[in-house]
Fold:
Amino acid sequence: MNLKKETFALLAGVLLMSVAHAPQASDDTQGFDIAARSDRTDVGFGDSVVELQMVLRNAAGQESTRALRIVTLEKPDETVGDKSLVVFDTPRDIEGTALLSHAKILDPDDQWLYLPALKRVKRISSSNKSGPFVGSEFAFEDFTAIELNKFDYTYIGEVPCGDLTCDVLERTPRYENSGYTKQVSWVDQTDFQIRKVEFYDRRGDLLKVLDMGDYRNYEGIWRAHKLSMSNVQTNKQTDLLYSEYTFDTGLAENDFVKGRLSRLR
Amino acid sequence: MRTLLLVILLAALSPARGEEVDISGSLDLQVRAFWQDPAWVGQDGRSLQGAMVSTTEFRWRNKDGNQRTSFIPYLRWDATDEERNLVDLKEAYWAIEGDDYEVLVGNNTVFWGVTESVHLVDTINQTDFAGDIDGEDKLGQPMISLALQRDWGEISAFVMPYFRERTFASVDGRFRPPLPVDTDKPLYESSSAENRVDLALRYSHYFGDVDIGLHAFSGTSREPRFVPAADGQMLLPVYDQIDQVGIDLQYTKDAWLWKLEAIARDGVSHSFAAAVGGFEYTLYQVSETSADVGVLLEVQYDGRNEFEPVSINDNDVFVGARLAVNDIQDTTVLAGVAYDVDTGETFVNIEAERRFGDDWFAELRVRAFSGAGQGDATYWLRADDYVQLNIARYF
Structure:
């Protein structure tokens, strides 16, 4: 058993199953520690509500925009995933369509989709991790909560990133059905926030680049307000433009049950 | 009409000054093309049938967020079939909710169930059969409902003080029996007729990968049977009293959805069971595209005798495929065939849809019937194969 695995076991307590690890350059925990430090800048946000615009752009530059709301309930325990609701306001024909997710760490998430035309709640398979989320360049696995323990980490080095210095980490998904062999993330050394992520496809080729910008600080909690996902293989791009977040709105477990989905509007 | 409704709504909401009413909706233009001459005397022989549909949604929520109203008038005008004309309130309710309860008073639409080829357990709302023969168009049901959320699931109780009759095509219309249905003269087993109070209970929850729903219903059957009118020129719908319990289950594992719906009903003449079960298996990102292809198989069983309302889903096998292109326009195609093992009747259904721009949505449907002999459930639809184009403008 390598040290890395032991650290996981201590921290998470649930990772006793034999998970195939990517070969490690070294058996130190620097990569995980940096990721954990970044992840934990987020601890204690409680719950959040935010509206955003999703701008989809094809290779010819044609644009299409969707308006959505994301409501999140923090589960402070790192062995349990957050709960979230994504509700669409436009395009009008899907207004009220909602995705309820109970994120897990390594098991598939529990997900329900609400279809307002029939007022139907459908439990959906979450094994489609790598599928595009509503036609965007974001896959389901990019969109659901990025949980610390969903990945193994390897420290690569440090590089300048804008005015800051970033630690570069390679992270490999530990959950099944990922569309990625690895991701490379840039985490700054000042605020410990992720600035950029590269996604490598199943063949190991660079597929997408995510730029995270316009970070704003809400009493200690950082949130990026512009996420740009560029597919370098198709030249398609999706931007997520966030409005101001609202935190601690008093949401509870009962706001994230499937029976609630028909009452959102 | 629209202005009038708006005035009524705003008047109803006048105590709540300062909060906005959210207005949205759609206007649909619908054309159906038939390529066979109609089977029955009196049916309009033109091959094209046009209709317009307006749906407007007025929604309001108070500042605290715990009270809301919804008002959704639905208007349909058909150029050929006056019985397809419809004014309905899909929703017209006021609701108050707390952390673990909701009370709702007014018209609402409620869906229960998991399967695709038939909706056996979906009991609350009457079917707008004139609107669409697939049973997915519903009429708003007046109700008082109470929902309680607990750790072990959600319990909902429904008290329904007024019955909605099923819509049927007129003498001019397609999709009708040899004799038209006289919707002006429904018969009821209950002496209270449409004012008989129906009751329903629903439990819904999930345990790991299994979603479960249970229901019980006591009241007026949404499905009518038919008796000839005295003059022998029309059929009269008869709405009987029934008691029903049912279950719906879905097991979601990897790319598999395993589904089951079953009911047991004390009907007009006997007690019987009906069930539908099967799976949906999805192949994600086929051939390294972003498209998903789902394969559906469902087997139907219905134990009702000939004195009960006719079901066209009695002993059928349904095979279907669903294509989701996962493009910006949300292009999807659903194609399926239902085959009746007993009678050899076949029903083909293809539905394709996509968005155009931000506000337009088009849907193309092809439906065809074959193999029905005289006396079979779809015999009276045998000349009603059709293609339908629906173009909707959302606002």
